[in-house]
TrEMBL record:
<dbReference type="InterPro" id="IPR039528">
    <property type="entry name" value="DPM1-like"/>
</dbReference>
<feature type="domain" description="Glycosyltransferase 2-like">
    <location>
        <begin position="16"/>
        <end position="180"/>
    </location>
</feature>
<dbReference type="GO" id="GO:0016020">
    <property type="term" value="C:membrane"/>
</dbReference>
<dbReference type="InterPro" id="IPR029044">
    <property type="entry name" value="Nucleotide-diphossugar_trans"/>
</dbReference>
<keyword id="KW-0328">Glycosyltransferase</keyword>
<dbReference type="InterPro" id="IPR001173">
    <property type="entry name" value="Glyco_trans_2-like"/>
</dbReference>
<dbReference type="GO" id="GO:0004582">
    <property type="term" value="F:dolichyl-phosphate beta-D-mannosyltransferase activity"/>
</dbReference>
<dbReference type="Pfam" id="PF00535">
    <property type="entry name" value="Glycos_transf_2"/>
</dbReference>
<keyword id="KW-0808">Transferase</keyword>
<protein>
    <submittedName>
        <fullName>Dolichol-phosphate mannosyltransferase</fullName>
    </submittedName>
</protein>
<comment type="similarity">
    <text>Belongs to the glycosyltransferase 2 family.</text>
</comment>
<dbReference type="GO" id="GO:0009247">
    <property type="term" value="P:glycolipid biosynthetic process"/>
</dbReference>
Length: 255
């Protein structure tokens, strides 16, 4: 039986997964903007035991709005683990599309309709800072340079054409997450984004990038750290070596 075109499969219902750690002042406004921009989506707040009471705020929001759900985790186990837990929650239900979005306001919910619309002809849609029309606002030079170098390094090491492979604002069709080996995802920090996008492309799924404006958070502290950067450098390098070795073995067998 021939497969239906992607557009015919539809993207609804949509679940937006929002990991949180100490985002008490941000979670309410960002969910309000999200549900105003897209009234039919659902949001899952995945809170890693925030000591500032973010989880309690999310619970109150969920009581007042059936579109909001909350998952409480007992420890700060990293961005990757939080997203995988959120993905599993969504896959255990009937959501056709699962979205990643930060809680700090850096990802504008108003851009999400365009990110979702791009799934008409794709399996993964990435809100990108580095395609024509994409931009960053209020980022210091050091952060811009680090982000640009991280994406350049990943493209060269992995041989991918994705320009913003570190981006954390993205929408997956359910079929992608069902096929990817989520149990094997070991990356915990922002390297998780590289890992998942790379695996998606290698699995033969169509990846598109949609220009967005990324705005630096106004409240709270960034979760970026030296350990997160080191994890990305080491893992991406290892993945790149592994891919090159597999390519060489494939050429040797053909020869």
């Amino acid at each position: 039986m021939a497969q239906a075109p992607r557009g015919a499969q539809g993207i609804d219902p949509v679940l937006v997964v929002v990991p949180t750690y100490n985002e008490r002042d941000n979670i309410g406004p960002i969910l309000e903007r999200l549900l105003k921009a897209l009234p039919d989506v659902h949001a899952l707040v995945v809170d890693d035991g925030s000591p500032d009471g973010t989880g309690d705020v999310a619970d109150e929001l969920a009581k007042a709005d059936e579109r909001i759900h909350v998952m409480h985790r007992t420890e700060k186990a990293g961005l990757g683990a939080a997203y995988v837990a959120g993905f599993r929650w969504g896959l255990s239900r009937d959501y056709a599309t699962i979205v990643e979005m930060d809680a700090d306001g850096s990802h504008a919910p108003e851009d999400l309709p365009r990110v979702l619309a791009a799934l008409e002809d794709a399996d993964l849609s990435i809100g990108s800072r580095y395609v024509p029309g994409g931009s960053t606002v209020n980022w210091p030079f050091q952060r811009k340079a680090l982000s640009w170098m991280a994406n350049f390094y990943a493209r060269v090491a992995l041989g991918t054409k994705i320009k913003d492979i570190t981006a954390g604002f993205r929408a997956y069709r359910r079929t992608v997450l069902e096929k990817l080996p989520l149990d094997e995802i070991a990356s915990r920090g922002y390297c998780f984004q590289i890992d998942l996008a790379f695996r998606t492309a290698l699995a033969g799924f169509e990846v598109v990038e949609v220009p967005i404006t990324f705005t630096e958070r106004e409240v709270g502290q960034s979760k970026m750290s030296g350990s997160v950067v080191r994890e990305a450098i080491v893992l991406v390098g290892l993945w790149g070596v592994k891919r090159r070795w597999q390519q060489l073995r494939g050429l040797a067998k053909k020869g």
